[in-house]
Amino acid sequence: MENPYLCPACGTNRSRFNLIQQKVRPVKKDPQTGKIVAEVDASDPLQAPYRGEELRVQCGVCGVVDAEQRFVKTARRGTGELSI
Ligand SMILES: [Zn+2]
Fold it and tell me: Which of 13, 49, 59, 68 is the most buried (most CB within 10 A)?
């Protein structure tokens, strides 16, 4: 989060961002009603653990959402890509 960002879509924004924390909540739902019937322990071997990004970032100018790493890598390259 302390790395400089550059939006990979608009290629100009380096200062305005929405940080989106991914909060994982493993649950069991009733298949018919959709009601959450249990919280599942993270160590439950029957449930695949979430392995996605912890943090996603939205550009505060053009609104594109992507993985934080894409914003960091674009900033390191020094230029945005014009296509997504
Ligand atoms: Zn942008």
Answer: 59
